[in-house]
Amino acid sequence: MITARAAATFEPVGRSVAAARAFVRDALQGWGFPDVIDDAVVLTSELVTNAVVHAGTHADVLCARTDSGVRIEVSDRYPERELPVHNPGARTAGIDREGGRGLLLCAALASRWGVEYSATQKTVWFHLDLPDRPAGTRSAGPALPAEALPVADARVRVAVVQIDRTGCITAWNDDAHALFGFTADQITGKPLADLAAWPHTPGTSTGIADALRLSRWEGSYGIRGADGRVIPVYASHLRVRDTTGAPSTVCLLVRDDERAVLQSPTRNSSGDTGSERGTATDPFEVFIGSPAPDDLDGLLQRTVERARDMLDGDAAYLLLATDDETELEVRASTGLPSARQRFARVPVEAGTGRYGSARMPAVHDDLSAVPGAVPLLNDTGMRSVVTVPLKVEGRLTGSLGVAAEAPGRYGNEEALRLQFAADRIALAVESARLGELERLRRGSLSFLVEASDLLAGTLDRDQTLALMAQMTVPTLATWCAVYTIADQSSEPELSYVLHEDEDRIDGLKALLSRVAPPDPVPTPGARVWTAPAEAAHSAALRTSLRTVGLNDNAHLLNGPSTSFATAAAVGGETVVLPLVARNRVIGMLTLGKPTDDHFRQEILELAEDLSRRAALALDNARLYSERTAISQSLQRSLLPPGLPDVPGMEVDVIYRAAGEGNEVGGDFYDLFPIRDGAYGFAIGDVCGTGPEAAAVTGLARHALRLLAREGFDGPAVLQRLNAAILDEGARSRFLTLLYGELRPQPDGSAELKVVCAGHPLPLRLRQDGTVEPAAEPQPLLGVMDDLELYEQTVTLDPGDVLLCVTDGVTERREGTRMLGDDGLTEVLTTCTGLTAGAVAARILRAVERFAMEPPSDDMAILAMRVPEQLPEHP
């Protein structure tokens, strides 16, 4: 009778064989059938290989739990393929054949097996009986003397934690409180993922959420305690469901050095036959190739666990060599503190002689006699260790080590066994590493191309700083801070802070503001900076010891929970990369990891490439900002400082310079006092736009003021200005100019004397709505040496308006249409009774609405109005 079942379908690709093995192993472990796992995995591997490799079809695998054992079915979708027929008398020849070995293994290992056909598929099944065991027994180890037993604290605590289907904690026992510092009230309802320091990189292998969904899982990871530190634990997860059918997971957790309390018994590794049917005894036999080919992290983690079990060690680790083979990077470990787990780096040559080099096998009987011989094991309590190199074609690709707390545990025999295992796994590890490195490099190129485009798209300093941080978080680091240096004599200033968790940005900024900035060293490459992690841990410790309201540092990280969260967030490795542009350090890019995490070498190299691009972009933004400020300051000096108050007159000006970033162009205006009761006004247009035209603008405006205040009349002022323009030689440009003198009269009117040198004629708006030119055209300036100019007198009555504009107004175009003098006159006729400011605003609005495109020429609008006299009241 079938009491439980699990099924999965696998695609016709090579990696499906490994996935099928892992599926069967997990299913049987979850059902508590360790005695038949090895046989089931071997048979499944052969049958799935026949289906996906030889038959080339999908493979359907069904695991069924029965009262007497386990039935496994492997179905392919190639029913017409014939089964190989073997002559019983030729059994040995059949074993050596390429095909049909799966059926021979079924006959040798299974209790029962068979083949079934249907119209669409062929199914090979086998049944494995469970061995008879006395009630109440499972497995047993040999009796050991007291000194050989595992060392534990005064009391072994087993934390029992229950997690619901959403991954949130629903139960938390007293031992969990004692181990991790949180009470049940504090932790109930929170996701386990917030506490778990999972040893694998997300996206590349099983994560905490995936492990909680497995029927059974067992292994090492870390739990962040109430003090912010990560506590290494060994855990056993069991998937259960209650009477209502709702699934949940029960987790048993102990300290990692006490894992013998929970760890499932391993198979005998001494070389003895595991059973009379020839069960595999080498822990690496079933393991080799079982993870997916591109799952490097899973491959390495399972390697160290099997290596530790094979030599009955307390810890194991695997390191991969960098490209130049000068350093080794920790990529997987078990039984070691979490700080030693990921991406920590040690030199290949740690000392003199064969024992100090990772290129040769080495056995240390007692590390206490040679302190520092294996830097990775410093302060871990490990006494004896055996390490062997991983080599491919004679090149060092990594190092595998197993350590024990007791001295003298290992000798040459163990080193040979471990070297044999390392030789078997080295090629698979190197293949997976190269695949991962290729994917990372392709991603790095795409990342740098996108980063370069984004950085090149802005010349704003603040936006450049924000882009630098946003490109690094969370792609390269958990948090980022950018320091800038204004000049060689300035101290580094914290300019931008970003964390992948927005709620932690303020706390991180407060922490970094209390830490002295890193030294601006121009040496290329990343260097480690320990100050943030030390400050965060100190702040968390002070917060945990203080009484609320009694510690002045309580506000450092916004409260106790924030203190621990920020300590965990910045407690890992922090590196500083200099921002060097044009042979000067202009800042530092700081990248950080959460508690006990390290940066991998490839990420640091990518960050260094990014820092070079970001430094140049930041310096370009600085130079652009400085030159823009200088340009704007010079341009503002070409404009009048302000309009004077003219008694008895309303005056308003609207000025628009064409071109992005230009405040002054070829058009200009001015209104200034000449002598008592008289004011000079001007509006002009230099040929062209931009800085060259603005230079002539400055010459014209300052010359007009100087000449007018010397007492020259209008024609004389313009004749001398014409000579000054011609004296500029090749830099001279012709200029249209309307110049006049304004004198308010006692009767409320205003007298104007004007000279219109090639400029659009001024328009006079009377109170009755009629519009007429207020001057006659005369030759423009900057073309001829001898000019004969004359001035005309215009009287503005109360309510009259004099409108002066540049050709940017009259030559406004929409396709073939142009506003022109007639269009301007038509708009002005609607301005009767409006103030000077309202008249100028209406003219500008009419110009803007005339065409969809923004104006491409400079514009100046000068409106002067004589206000009506108010009636006298008795």
Automatic annotation (TrEMBL):
<dbReference type="Pfam" id="PF13581">
    <property type="entry name" value="HATPase_c_2"/>
</dbReference>
<feature type="domain" description="PAS">
    <location>
        <begin position="160"/>
        <end position="190"/>
    </location>
</feature>
<dbReference type="InterPro" id="IPR001932">
    <property type="entry name" value="PPM-type_phosphatase-like_dom"/>
</dbReference>
<dbReference type="Pfam" id="PF07228">
    <property type="entry name" value="SpoIIE"/>
</dbReference>
<dbReference type="InterPro" id="IPR052016">
    <property type="entry name" value="Bact_Sigma-Reg"/>
</dbReference>
<dbReference type="GO" id="GO:0016791">
    <property type="term" value="F:phosphatase activity"/>
</dbReference>
<dbReference type="InterPro" id="IPR035965">
    <property type="entry name" value="PAS-like_dom_sf"/>
</dbReference>
<dbReference type="InterPro" id="IPR000014">
    <property type="entry name" value="PAS"/>
</dbReference>
<dbReference type="InterPro" id="IPR036890">
    <property type="entry name" value="HATPase_C_sf"/>
</dbReference>
<protein>
    <recommendedName>
        <fullName>PAS domain-containing protein</fullName>
    </recommendedName>
</protein>
<dbReference type="Pfam" id="PF00989">
    <property type="entry name" value="PAS"/>
</dbReference>
<feature type="region of interest" description="Disordered">
    <location>
        <begin position="262"/>
        <end position="290"/>
    </location>
</feature>
<dbReference type="Pfam" id="PF13185">
    <property type="entry name" value="GAF_2"/>
</dbReference>
<dbReference type="InterPro" id="IPR013767">
    <property type="entry name" value="PAS_fold"/>
</dbReference>
<dbReference type="InterPro" id="IPR029016">
    <property type="entry name" value="GAF-like_dom_sf"/>
</dbReference>
<dbReference type="InterPro" id="IPR003594">
    <property type="entry name" value="HATPase_dom"/>
</dbReference>
<dbReference type="InterPro" id="IPR003018">
    <property type="entry name" value="GAF"/>
</dbReference>
<dbReference type="GO" id="GO:0006355">
    <property type="term" value="P:regulation of DNA-templated transcription"/>
</dbReference>
<feature type="compositionally biased region" description="Polar residues">
    <location>
        <begin position="263"/>
        <end position="278"/>
    </location>
</feature>
<keyword id="KW-0378">Hydrolase</keyword>
<dbReference type="InterPro" id="IPR036457">
    <property type="entry name" value="PPM-type-like_dom_sf"/>
</dbReference>
